[in-house]
Amino acid sequence: MSFTIHGIGVSGGIAIGHAHLVSHTKLEVSHYDVPATQLAEETARFDRAVNTVRGELENLRGAVPAGAPAEFAAFIDLHLMILGDTTLSVVPRAIIENERCNAEWALKIQTDELLQQFDAIEDSYLRERRTDVIQVAQRVMKALSGQPGYVPPPAGDSDRNLVLVAHDLSPADVVLFKQHQFASFVTDLGGATSHTAIVARSLNIPCIVALHHARQLVRENEIIIVDGTQGVIIIDPDPQVLAEYQLRQREFGLERQKLKRLRDTPARTLDGADIELYANIELPGDVALAVESGATGIGLFRTEFLFLNRPELPGEDEQFEAYRKVMEEMGGRPVTIRTYDLGADKQIDDTARLAPNPALGLRAIRLCLTEPKRFITQLRAMLRASNYGKMKILIPMLMNASEVDQALLLLDQAKRSLDAEGVAYDRNIPVGGMVEIPAAALALGLLTKRLDFLSVGTNDLIQYLLAIDRTDDTVAHLYDPLHPAVLTLLAHIFATAGKSRIPVAVCGEMAGDVALTRLLLGLGLRQFSMHSAHLPDIKQRVLKTSLADTRPIAKKMLRATDSAKLRGMLEKLNA
After folding, report:
1. Is residue 507 annotated as part of the catalytic site, yes or no?
2. Long-range pairs of 38-43 with CB within 8 A, sequence gap ≥ 24
3. Which residue from 139, 227, 297, 327 could staple onto 388, CB 3.0 to 4.6 Å apart?
């Protein structure tokens, strides 16, 4: 019987194949008392399980295929780091001895304690790292029960695509999947910023997460359609639906090929306005896809990804090499590097410090200003790399003028230290700020007088403006880029920046939503920065757009207050 399940599409496209069920990693945990005379053996059994898992992960690390995205190795390193942390590898031993319980129960107690700490974290990226803790703990649990780590299916007929269906997948497992043919994977758990989603995007295959019950409802070998663009899977489709999606799949593939021809075509509207289309990247390895997609620059390099997933923070030289690599590979095209957007809950040397609301707490520039030595280290690395291309520095989460002034003072201090050492750098490097906080958007003059450019982070700006946690399933449907307040605020930002002759870009998800491209153009935006996969679609829309036609409709949309009417006007704009 055919049925559909809806989730969150995190990597677009259409895949059709046979379902392969990945074993559910969650195990039932029993609790029993261990006699005092056997406690030593019980702790030794726990140690053996940890060592077994360490060996599994190290073998996976060595099995990373040549040419695999750099994230693969980083994810395995993260799991090794979690496994080696005393909170997971040592504390359960103490619980075994103090509670006189079995190793499985001790591990469960400690894992539950760690997960409670993660549940208190509001930062979406870090909260989803709780999944990595679960995956590592479950590997150890399997080792304790004598079950081996997951082994992927043997490579079968090359014409037979597999759609992996799992309650959850670890990036370490996906490294093994890389050696086998599969068309897609779907999971019950996960979010748009989960490691599984990041891996899917790096592999450029359709992926859907947060399906909740797919693993229970789908049967082995069933035909399954994955529509990553719409976030829906269709199980056991009837012949008519299957034929329709096969046609869509072919059309999608042909359209992708056609769009590749636009790679070197300037993004220019029908009435001659030049539009800059930049790419967002997390790691230096993302540059290749950005160039292949036709990006004319990097509009956002999220440097915090260099700081995460590791036992210690990168030093100045390591950061410099990463930044220099991006600059050189971009071949003189502009690169905007954002200073790290880390929060109090991401500090390796202060992991016990948990804020009640980290998304609104000590993070981004606020944290940088409380850790000036660490901040100057990054600024020095950036400045050194600026000698290898056209760099801009972007400061996140600015709220008032004093933050800008303090950041610029520290940048001057970094410059003076390099001058004293005779190190070359771009002395006129542009410095910009992210507009993510409504207060900064409403008092934009405080920033335009001090900065060289602006970049609008629509993800956080909309979340803060509407008081919506977009990662919370119960309210995520209220997250609305077309809310009248959002459009009014964006128009205000673009107009104010224009009057001040300050370049402004949008680097949030709105920039990569082709349905909103003409609206943003009509409101005055001329620079977009997005994930590389979205760039060809946005360029095609730009090439088919007349600003003279879009401006009047965009202005009318600013006066509309009814959501249904707004969406109708948007459809007219895109017709």
Report:
1. yes
2. 39/96, 39/97, 39/100, 42/96, 42/102, 42/103, 43/93, 43/96, 43/97, 43/103
3. 327
